[in-house]
C-alpha cells in the first residue's frame, strides 16, 4: 500500500533520525557533522536536524529548510552553521536525495596532503571511482577563514567542487558525501571512512593497486543492491546503544 502525503513526510523524518544515529554509531560523526534528506513532497526543500549532536537527534528536532538553507519556520531553535553545504548541493544536483557532512577522522589526512587521492582500494568503496576531489576553501575565503561552509557562496563553491561525483573532501576539515537515497548516502559515508583507513594502511605496506574504472563501476552497481543489508544491521546496533531520548 502506498503512503499518503503526511506519512511520506513522517517516514522521511523517521529515516533521517535513524541515519543520524547510525552515522554516530558507525563513527562517521561525533558531536559534529550532519545528514539531510530532500523533502519527499517539496523537492526545493530539505529536512535537517536543528543544531545538535547527531547521536541525540529525535523526530521533534528535525526542521524543514528552504532552497537557500533558511529554516522555513522562523524564530525556531539554533540551526547548523554549515547548512549551506546541503542547500547548495540540492540546488546544483537534482539527482541528489541525501547528503552527509562529517569530519570522520581517517578521511581528513587525504584532504590535507597533495599527491595522494582518496581512491577505492577495495570493492565496498567502488563508488569513489577515479578519485575524490579536494575543496580548497582558501580559494574562496582567503587564508584566515574558520574553514566552515557558513554561507551560500561557499556552499555553491563546494557543490561546484563535488561536481557530478559522490564525495568531496574539504581541506583541513572533513568531507561531504551524497546519494540518490538516504540509505545510499549513509552507506557511502561509512565506506568512505573505512576506505580511507584501509588506503592509509595499504600505503604503509607498499605500492597500492586500486580498482580500475570498470571494477569501480561494477562493484558500485552490485553494492547498490545490497545497501539495506548493511542499513538494518547498523540500525539495530545503533538502537541498542542509542543515547537519544
Ligand atoms: Zn564541518
How would you describe this protein?
The chain has 245 residues and is of the alpha+beta class. It is built from eight helices and seven strands, in the order αβββαβαβααββααα. It has a seven-stranded mixed β-sheet, with helices on both faces. α1 packs parallel to α6 and α2 packs across α5. The chain is globular and about 55 Å long. The chain starts with a helix and ends with a helix. The model has no long low-confidence stretch (mean pLDDT 97). The site of zinc ion has 5 residues, from loops. Zinc ion (ZN) binds next to loops.
Brief account:
The chain has 245 residues and is an alpha+beta fold.
Structure annotation, total helices: 8
Average pLDDT, rounded to a whole number, is 97
Query: What does the oligomeric state look like here?
Result: single chain
Work out the number of β strands: 7
- Unreliable stretches covering 5 or more consecutive residues: none
Helix/strand-derived class?
Answer: alpha+beta
What is the alpha-carbon Rg in Å? Answer: 17 Å
**What is the helical fraction, as a range of percent?**
40-55%
Summarize the biggest pleated sheet.
7 strands, mixed
Distance between the terminal alpha carbons, to the nearest Å?
31 Å
Bound compounds, each kind once, are: zinc ion
Strand order of the largest sheet: 3-2-1-4-7-6-5
Q: Give the DSSP E fraction (strand runs of 2 or more residues).
A: 5-15%
Amino acid at each position: 500500500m502506498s503512503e499518503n502525503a503526511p506519512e511520506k513526510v513522517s517516514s522521511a523524518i523517521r529515516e533521517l533520525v535513524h541515519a543520524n544515529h547510525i552515522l554516530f554509531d558507525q563513527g562517521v560523526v561525533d558531536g559534529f557533522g550532519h545528514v539531510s534528506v530532500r523533502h519527499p513532497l517539496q523537492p526545493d526543500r530539505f529536512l535537517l536536524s536543528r543544531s545538535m549532536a547527531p547521536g541525540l537527534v529525535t523526530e521533534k528536532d528535525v526542521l524543514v529548510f528552504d532552497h537557500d538553507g533558511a529554516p522555513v519556520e522562523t524564530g525556531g531553535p539554533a540551526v547548523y552553521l554549515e547548512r549551506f553545504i546541503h542547500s547548495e548541493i540540492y540546488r546544483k544536483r537534482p539527482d541528489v536525495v541525501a547528503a552527509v557532512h562529517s569530519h570522520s577522522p581517517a578521511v581528513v589526512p587525504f584532504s590535507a596532503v597533495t599527491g595522494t587521492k582518496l581512491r577505492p582500494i577495495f570493492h565496498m568503496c567502488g563508488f569513489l571511482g577515479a578519485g575524490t576531489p579536494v575543496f580548497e576553501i582558501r580559494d574562496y575565503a582567503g587564508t584566515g577563514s574558520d574553514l566552515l561552509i557558513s554561507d551560500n557562496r561557499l556552499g555553491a563553491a563546494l557543490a561546484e567542487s563535488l561536481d557530478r561525483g559522490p564525495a568531496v573532501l574539504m581541506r583541513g576539515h572533513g568531507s561531504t558525501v551524497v546519494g540518490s537515497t538516504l540509505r545510499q548516502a549513509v552507506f557511502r559515508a561509512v565506506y568512505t571512512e573505512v576506505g580511507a583507513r584501509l588506503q592509509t594502511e595499504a600505503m604503509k605496506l607498499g605500492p597500492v593497486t586500486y580498482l580500475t574504472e570498470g571494477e569501480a563501476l561494477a562493484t558500485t552497481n552490485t553494492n547498490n543492491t545490497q545497501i539495506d543489508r548493511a542499513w538494518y544491521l547498523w540500525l539495530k546496533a545503533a538502537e541498542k546503544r542509542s543515547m537519544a531520548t
